[in-house]
Amino acid sequence: MFAIEPYAAERERFIKNDKGGLDVFWEPVRVLGVSKDDDGELSYIVETYSGSDRMLSVEPYVRVRRA
Q1: Which of 1, 4, 30, 55 could bond 35 through an S-S bridge, CB–CB 3.0 to 4.6 Å?
Q2: What are the φ and ψ backbone dihedral angles of 41, each rounded to 5 degrees?
Q3: Mind listing the pLDDT tens digit for each residue in 12-37?
Q4: What is the DSSP letter of 33?
Q5: What is the pLDDT of residue 62?
Q6: What's the Rg (C-alpha) of the chain?
Q7: Torsion of CA 9, 14, 54, 1, to 10 degrees
Q8: What's the chain's average pLDDT?
Q9: What percent of the chain has pLDDT over 70?
Q10: 3-state secondary structure 36-51
Q11: DSSP sequence for 2-22
């Protein structure tokens, strides 16, 4: 993993809707680093929040958070 200057971004998340399908939404995260996954592809180390809890996650892609 390579640490970078953290920046605000969003990761793609899916929620079941009332019709049984999936709705897409973008969840705010903070990118802390980059790495490679098992296939050698770029991945992002992100910090997520749930209430007062902070968690780390590996995401295959993120988008820069819009102001």
Answers
A1: 1
A2: -85, 150
A3: 999 999 999 999 999 999 999 999 98
A4: E
A5: 96
A6: 13
A7: -60
A8: 92
A9: 99
A10: ECCCCCEEEEEEEEEC
A11: EEEEEEEEEEEEEEE-TTSSE
The partner residues of 25 in beta bridges, in order of sequence, read 13
Could you give the strand order of the β-sheet that contains 63-64, starting from the edge strand earlier in sequence?
Answer: 53-59, 42-50, 22-36, 2-16, 63-64
pLDDT band at 67 (very low <50, low <70, confident <90, very high): low
pTM: 0.82
Neighbours of 30 (CB within 10 A): 16
- What residues have CB less than 8 Å from 31, skipping those under 6 apart? 4, 6, 7, 8, 9, 44, 45, 46, 62
To which residue do tokens 């705010």 refer? Answer: 28
Q: Which two tokens stand for residue 61?
A: 């892609």
